[in-house]
Protein 1
Amino acid sequence: MGREKIIKNLQVRVRHADPVHIIADFDYSFIQHGNTPLVNMTNSGKYNSILPPEASPGIDLPLCSCYSLVSIMKNRADSRINLIESLSRRKFLFGSLAFSGAVFADAWLRQPTDLEVSQTRLPISKIPSGKELRVVHLSDLHLHRYDRYFRQVAAATSTLNPDLILLTGDYVEEARNLSGVLDFLAQLKAPAGVFAVQGNWEYWALIEGKNLRDKFRSKGVELLINQRADIDYKGVAISILGIDFPSPSGSVQQLNDAAEKSRVNIALSHVPAFQHEIMDDTSDLILCGHTHGGQVRLPMLKPFHLPRHSGRFVDGLYRVGKKDTPLYVTRGIGTSIMPLRFFCPPEINLIRLVGV
Ligand SMILES: [Fe+2]
């Protein structure tokens, strides 16, 4: 065999008519960078150097024949390179498109309904030791139809055996979908009650206020509009402080002033940046939604977008105020604006308030 130096993984091998005798080996880049191989060989006087060891100098090959062979092989090699590059480009393009399509389909068709149940255990000193209050927190339904997915959400909620179900707003995006929300709400059952507050979308869909409260009440859900609801359940005195959207500081202050510190005070607000500082130390737990956790994310990176009034909150458990009050922001159930989720699954949040 002749000396082989493959630079671009392509070798041009010139053979004599007798295929056993290789008379020249070139790597492609050698041909590519020289003027022509033959001229190089002739000029450099290295004609013999490209002959393989087994090719004796006695081979009778006219220079012009060699030149022709080399030229033909060079053209073939160029064609092959062009073909390979063209196929590689097509493969890359097709692969990229197929990958992007698969990612988009997953973010559109699977991930928005890939429901996750998160569980958080919080010790509360106002709850007697040995007792536990199971709170299921749902938010941001953005329901278009009461379909299979929402039946699954209702069933999963029921499976968690909640004592109390709390909802933090954004039930619809359009008033015409309210009947589906009411069908969904009718499925939610908890012995200590189901309580809700309004989000920004209730205002944008123009369904907010007393009418909505009456409709929710007909399904067993108490909608709190800057109101407090008291429950006494299993010997535990609980107050739900329902903060409306928007939440001017006056309303938050009034609720805070009316709260009794001896009760377990659970504040509900659609948005997490609602001047919670006013009631951080009165509340034992603050529940919020609104952010959707960013909805479309990449691992380890901050969300691309968070809506106004999210503040520093994205999702999960935070601690606020002098008492390190737990403030939980759920990723919610539905999707907003774009029907997509990516690395940010929808969430049912079970919070176990345990006595200490
Ligand atoms: Fe929302």
Note: Residues 140, 142, 170, 199, 290, 292, 332, 336 surround fe (ii) ion (CB under 6 Å).
Protein 2
Amino acid sequence: MRHVLCLGLERMFCKAGSGPCANEQTESYAMLVPSHIARHDFASHDLVQSAPGAARLAQRVDDQMHGLRNLVAEMANVLQSGADKHPGRLGHLLLQTRQMVHNGFRVLSEAGRLRAGDAAAAAGDPERVLAQTHAWTQLTQRLHHMRLDLNNWAAVETMLRPQTDGKRRPLIEPLSKLPSTAETRELVSDVLFDQIHGLLNQLTQSQEVLDNGGFADIPLAQSLFLRSVHAAKRCLMAMQKHDDTRFLDVGCGAGIKLMSAAPFFDYCDGLEFDAGYVQLAQSILRALRDDSCQVIAGDALEFDNYDTYDVIYFYRPLREDALLIEMEQRIVEQASAGTLLIAPYRGFEHRAEDLGCAQVAGQLWLVGASPRMATQLRRAAEKTGTDVLLAPLSNVPLVWDPLIQASLQNGFAPKMEARNMYNQHNA
Ligand SMILES: C[S@@+](CC[C@H](N)C(=O)[O-])C[C@H]1O[C@@H](n2cnc3c(N)ncnc32)[C@H](O)[C@@H]1O
């Protein structure tokens, strides 16, 4: 199982009842309707003679899609160079696109009338009937795909609109600012996670780890963990680290935090000293068929690969302060500048400055950085959106794909409300 949050777009696309099914792998629109054939056919003199309505509509579809592609390319450029650097430009392009989508629906609405006209003109001439039937069958596929593109505009617009406001969205809201409803929900799921953790890990800590000053598998509250992980992922986005993002949980116990981090990062590793916990976490991950997470058996005080991670999380694996400090020093010495640390326990904040780490927000720290650099990073990350979970593009290609790709890299995805509205509308 790969922990990706599907945007649910496939379902949306198939709901249009027109495009290929989600499991049909099509590489491009051109594969659906080879455009050179279609264009050649529709432009040919014979076809213009035998199905003038189809030829006219095909030309208008081509013009429409060409215009949309140009707008999409321009908007994707703006998004890639940072929407906030071009205030107003994205909003302007958005308005133009909305108008063009509106025109597109008008073009589609003419199909029935033009087809009836071609049929009437061909009546009584079997060869011409055949030619115009063939032309309309081909064109219908293109119309279906265009409708699919246009129908998805509403969802794409909900993704683009918030990128025009230049607003900052806090990395971690203080608990006091959470709506009381959300606070209650977090509390309930924290208790539930604790219970599930208790059920999953009924092992007692091995004597070896206890003798070496280790803590047992005591979980950090799930909601606190997710806050920091979410903030860390937005920082990576602000740093333009989009690919092969790597997360490490030092002392992962049964591995619940690994699984929780999996939707955010490409690879999640857990380092664990207790052999029983290692086996348990491995068997849980195997059962989930999660190949993005792995458990490494080893001692945090001897591990040599801290430099290969973008985000390192450690929730006090060691009881004794002296050992904990030794581990912190080892991590920071090895980790590259720009690595993010999540250290949610008392004491780290007093040592952070000496370790060359600066606070970004909450329990999130930046290695090899001054407070000014950490503030700059926080500000940049606050400009990213909050939709940070790994999400594949739909396997049905759409004219909007470059926009979706660029927006996802900035933390903005098509919104749920639009999807729901769309699904209700098409039910
Ligand atoms: C407080 S629990 C944290 C569990 C989990 N990471 C979480 O946040 O919910 C500490 C974990 O660190 C492990 N541990 C203790 N000493 C360790 C060491 N020297 N190296 C690696 N892991 C260690 C323990 O076995 C335990 O699973």
Note: The radius of gyration is 27 Å.
Protein 3
Amino acid sequence: MEKREMICINCPLGCILSVSRNEAGEVTVSGNTCPRGAEYGRTELTAPKRVLTSTVRIQGEKGRVVPVKTANPVPKEKIGDCMEALKGAEARLPVQIGDVVLENVAGTGIAVVATKGVEKELIMKELCSDIEETEQWCSEIMEHVRERIAQGNTLKGTGAYE
Ligand code: SF4
């Protein structure tokens, strides 16, 4: 007889399930408030699955990624293979929420879909705001340097040119 206790993660109630399997392979679940809990306990004992969330690189956009998840839960023992497959995957812009980024991840028959839309314009906007921040920072430094020179101070001791 195999027996396990687990928390049902299907809703915030978090029922504590007691799941057991006898010698004949029959599974019984108790502690569940609804049928979803019974199904969860049965699957968790016999063939646990998880929805995998991760990110995928965007083609041609160095350092940029799009968040993704598997469209359905994948077998727990396949999570490592799925992560490996995602490392080599690339999304093409524009990406809309729900777009399939990778079909049949790691041979599971399950697709990986985007959980956020990304467009070229958005990336350009982010890059431009970075440039604006950098320009602002540089002009503040230059102002500080001009003030010191005007006051007859050297830049020695500031660490800026040492
Ligand atoms: S058994 Fe039903 S009520 Fe209890 S946590 Fe699971 S889904 Fe929620």
Note: Residues 8, 10-11, 13-15, 32-34, 36-37 surround iron/sulfur cluster (CB under 6 Å).
Protein 4
Amino acid sequence: MEADQPSTSSVSLSIDNDLADEDLVLNDESAEIARLQLPEEDQPQDKLEPLEEDERIAKIDFRCSACDMHELVHYFGRQPPFALGIKYLEDTYVMRDPFQPPPPRWQSKPEYYIAMGSKCSSCSKVVCKDGACSFYYTRTVCLPCGKAELKDWPVEAQARLRKQLEDKDK
Ligand SMILES: [Zn+2]
Ligand SMILES: [Zn+2]
């Protein structure tokens, strides 16, 4: 490799600064090494900040009260920050898809995610999305509450829940 590299802006700044010659040489060398070790596409900002790594750890306990499914999820609420443009009508337990790599942080792409469940809008029990555990009609209800409220719903919703209850008992 040629010894004469084009001088970088930092080096010329140092010269203006009246620094001792030794410092100048050292600075130049370390800058050189850093340049050699970093391939173009591997910029330092790829590294996740500690805060962001932390955010990727699922810490919210989700346990379905009906089937006892238990998962740690990333988010409970209506607007998961990692699922861009998604706004749920009710508070929802959301998990980042563990099988997908995170998108690079400079890309404002939505991440893959899984809505795990919600709270029953009547009794507030946590239920998963499984048809044996919850029913969704304008809001999530657990099946016992669904059965109790059924008669107040439009016929079409009643039919859907009845079908779901039949499937469950099969
Ligand atoms: Zn369940
Ligand atoms: Zn309920």
Note: Residues 48 and 54 are 9 Å apart (CA to CA).
